[in-house]
Design brief:
Organism: Rhodococcus pseudokoreensis
Low-confidence stretches: none
Order of helices and strands: HEEEHEEEEEEEEEE
Structural class: mainly beta
Protein name: Restriction endonuclease
Oligomer: single chain
Number of helices: 2
Number of strands: 13
């Protein structure tokens, strides 16, 4: 997969769809640091290596071009899918995270992409990352509580 790709190129290559209101000719940004897509956050592994670790129960799978669904929206709808060239990217889950935020660990030798129907796509540069849920502080009388970001 080319690291400079438009949203149209990526959806045609993977067979995954995004909503029509998104600009299909926009170049998908590729980031080698922290990034977020809706309720997901991608963190370089080096920043959380002392917190998030694989466990004896962790299983790894190749990420196919057709994608691995990492998370669906609260109502079970729009999925966040991880895609990459076959054989170049591994997704390992479940992992140990005492914060209960990590969904898994991504190891990729090529640019991998997160695709979501509402958000479009973002590129993840080669490397090792933790992909997890985002958490936010409540409002009003729930200010002292945190909850998962839900989009």
């Amino acid at each position: 997969m080319n690291s400079i790709m438009t949203l149209s190129d990526l959806t045609a290559l993977t067979g995954l769809d995004v909503f029509d209101y998104l600009d299909q000719e926009v170049s998908v940004p590729v980031i080698d640091g922290m990034q977020a897509q809706g309720d997901l956050i991608v963190v370089p592994y080096s920043l959380v290596a002392e917190i998030v670790t694989p466990g004896p129960w962790t299983r790894s799978e190749n990420v196919p071009l057709s994608g691995v669904v990492l998370l669906r929206s609260a109502a079970g709808g729009n999925p966040h899918s991880l895609v990459a060239d076959e054989g170049m990217c591994m997704w390992s889950t479940p992992v140990n995270d005492p914060r209960r935020l990590a969904l898994g660990i991504l190891d990729t030798r090529v640019t991998a992409y997160l695709i979501h129907p509402e958000h479009g796509a973002t590129g993840i540069a080669p490397g090792r990352y933790v992909i997890g849920r985002q958490r936010e502080r409540g409002v009003g009388r729930f200010f002292e509580r945190t909850h998962f970001v839900v989009d």
